[in-house]
């Protein structure tokens, strides 16, 4: 009887953990504008929505929304095979990178198309 009780408890507990582990939700994001991001402190986490309008070379691109434009840096691995044109609206998440002698830019960690 004791073995059955222990076995039942183990099965129930493993089922609870599986249910908790199965949830994959998205965090709530509040996009900011380029103008707002440009004024934020170094290493601030940001979400921007707009358009990648030009490739500046290497990992550098120009990102634009209704408030202005800013340079963004996107490592090749972040693209994950995604093809984006200047007409495609995207959401980028990343970190503000301020500099002493050059304009603020954004180090992009994720990018996705907005439908």
Q: What features would you describe in this structure?
A:
The protein is of the alpha+beta class and 115 residues long. It has a domain at 34-113: Beta Barrel (OB fold (Dihydrolipoamide Acetyltransferase, E2P)), CATH 2.40.50. It is 26% helix and 38% strand. Strands 1-2-3-5-4 form a 5-stranded mixed beta barrel. β1 (45-57) and β2 form a beta hairpin.
SSE blueprint:
Elements (H helix, E strand, L loop, with lengths): L1 H21 L11 H5 L6 E13 L2 E6 L2 E7 L1 H4 L9 E9 L7 E9 L2
Parallel strand pairs: 3-5
Antiparallel strand pairs: 1-2, 1-4, 2-3, 4-5
Keywords:
5 strands, 115 residues, BOBF_sf, globular, 5-stranded mixed barrel, alpha+beta, CarO-like, NirD/YgiW/YdeI family stress tolerance protein, 3 helices, OB fold (Dihydrolipoamide Acetyltransferase, E2P)
Q: Would you identify the CATH architecture of the domain at 34-113? A: Beta Barrel
Category from helices, strands and their pairing: alpha+beta
The CATH topology of the domain at 34-113 is what?
A: OB fold (Dihydrolipoamide Acetyltransferase, E2P)
> What's the number of extended β-strand segments?
5
Just give the CATH class of the domain at 34-113: Mainly Beta
Strand content: 35-45%
């Amino acid at each position: 009887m004791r073995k059955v009780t222990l076995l039942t408890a183990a099965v129930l507990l493993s089922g609870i953990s599986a249910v908790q582990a199965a949830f994959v939700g998205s965090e709530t994001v509040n996009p900011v504008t380029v103008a707002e991001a440009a004024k934020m402190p170094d290493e601030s986490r940001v979400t921007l929505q707009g358009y990648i309008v030009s490739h500046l070379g290497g990992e550098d691109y120009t990102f634009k929304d209704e408030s202005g434009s800013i340079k963004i840096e996107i490592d090749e691995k972040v693209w994950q095979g995604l093809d984006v044109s200047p007409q495609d609206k995207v959401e980028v998440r990343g970190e503000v990178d301020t500099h002493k002698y050059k304009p603020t830019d954004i180090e992009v960690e994720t990018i996705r198309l907005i439908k």
